[in-house]
Amino acid sequence: MLSRIETINRTTAQIMAGDLGRRIVVEGSGDEFDALATNLNAMLALLREQYDEVVVDSPPVLLVSDPKATSELVDATILLVRWQETSADKTQNALAELDAVNAKVAGAVLSQVDMQRQEQYGYAGVGSYYKNYRKYYVD
Length: 139
Known about the structure:
By secondary structure, the chain is mainly alpha-helical. It contains six helices and two strands; from the N terminus they run αααβαβαα.
């Protein structure tokens, strides 16, 4: 029984590492492991068929190690930075942590922006940018 669990774990690790063509072996015994393998294989086939992209949400990079481990299993990482809460130092530290595990950082998203407070800084939104750079756009 333990070797069967180890085989399933090893195969799922290979799938998560990017070998999306791998499947868990169904031995034909009809036991719970065969049922699990059948369901996991069906789920993988469905995900592959129905979705172009799959987003994996993880906890903050600086709090736990999960995001660093997960970053090795995904095609790209996007760092979420909370407006007015996440300092520049913490953002730089998070990027350094991701860089240390060779994460492929595709970019960052500034989240939970208070648009009314943002306007107080003189950034009234996309319209203000358009007005200033209108000559670069074609209507």
